[in-house]
Amino acid sequence: MSTVVIATPATNFDVQKLAADVYAVIRKEPPGFMVDANNLLIIGPANVIVVDANGAPGITREVLAALRRITSKPVRYVINTHYHDDHIRGNQVYREAFSGVDFVAHSFAKTYLPGEGAANRKNFLEGAPQFLNQLRDLLKDGRSLRGGAITGEERISMTSDGELAGFVLADGATAEAVLPTIAVDDHLTLQSGKRTVEIRHLGAAHTAADLVVWLPGDGIIATGDIVVSPVPLVGDPQSHVGAWATTLQKIRSLRPSIIVPGHGPVLRDDAYLATLAGMFQSISAQTAAVVKRNGSLDDARKTVNLDEYRAKIAGDSAVRQILFANYVAGPGIGAAFRENGGK
To answer: How sure is the predictor about 145, in pLDDT bands with cuts at 50, 70 and 90?
Structure first.
């Protein structure tokens, strides 16, 4: 008799082998407002390099358990691609399990996490229960976030959002922000046996402190939230829309054959990256034109036309349309307006 394993928010991932001794841990949530980070596991002759932790210690403990089913070697480095909670709050699990572990991140994380990061986290912890209650009420009443009746796709997404948010609040609310022990401004190269692991800051994008992890011998790159599928995550003021396209083109110039995004499935070509680069370039150029004629932010929101990219990225999906409005059009135009000197 087979055993049916019920996925919980902590175990809702697949482990995919990408190359010899290289594995991706890919989250399985449907598109929604609540996400948790993918991970990359690089197993060397003596130890392991892990890319990104997670939004709650309980999730990272399950990732570590999956790693231990592959190897008993200790984790030597944890690389955080950037400083947002869903990529760093599981760091303490590795610190508790491995006495010699180092945490690698952009140097700005040392300043951000105890300052602005702590304030942002406080706001999240105070606001998230209200969001959860809103989701529960909408689900109970069968109503959409856009108004009107909920679709089946929206119900699945909102249910997942509620489950993951509830878990992170319960398990991760008191999780410590572990600061980097090794700071990177431009690049750092690690050697894992014969495998070269390059940690690079290619430019601002999702944040000013994004790192990628590039395995040139394997053609594998972990991008953090520079690449998020199916809808990118843009923040205002933390994201840098004008530079994002250039940073994406630098990733494309490496010619990776396997792309592990911060969230979403593994990509086997760069077509989606090309779409994102074109979109961010368009947002920046159109918004700059509004600023040049002394237009307001409201003018920019009315005139910047993203129909082409909304169709490519969101299509006719109600959930993706909501995410595009909240994570691309709104903050993307706002960030571009600020970057281009709008007043």
So the answer is: confident
E strands, the chain, are 13-19, 22-27, 39-43, 48-51, 75-79, 102-106, 182-184, 187-192, 195-200, 212-215, 220-228, 258-263
213 in a structural domain: no
Question: For 166-204, b where at least 16 C-beta lie within 10 A, e where not — what string?
Answer: bbbbebbeebebbbbeeebeeebebebeebebebbbbbb
Domain that holds residue 296: 276-339
pLDDT digits (tens, 9 = 90+) for 216-257: 999 999 999 999 999 999 999 999 999 999 999 999 999 999
Could you report the per-residue pLDDT of 173-184, keeping only the tens digit for each? 889 999 999 999
The number of distinct structural domains making up the chain is: 1
Q: To the nearest whole percent, how much of the chain has pLDDT over 90?
A: 91
How far apart CA 69 and CA 95 sit, in angstroms, is: 19
> Is residue 315 domain-resident?
yes
pLDDT in tens, 272-289: 999 999 999 999 999 999
CA dist., res. 322 & res. 158, Å (int): 12
Is the distance from CB of 90 to CB of 57 less than 8 angstroms?
Answer: yes
Residue 332 in domain: yes
CA 238 to chain centre: 13
* Number of neighbouring beta carbons within 10 Å of residue 253: 10
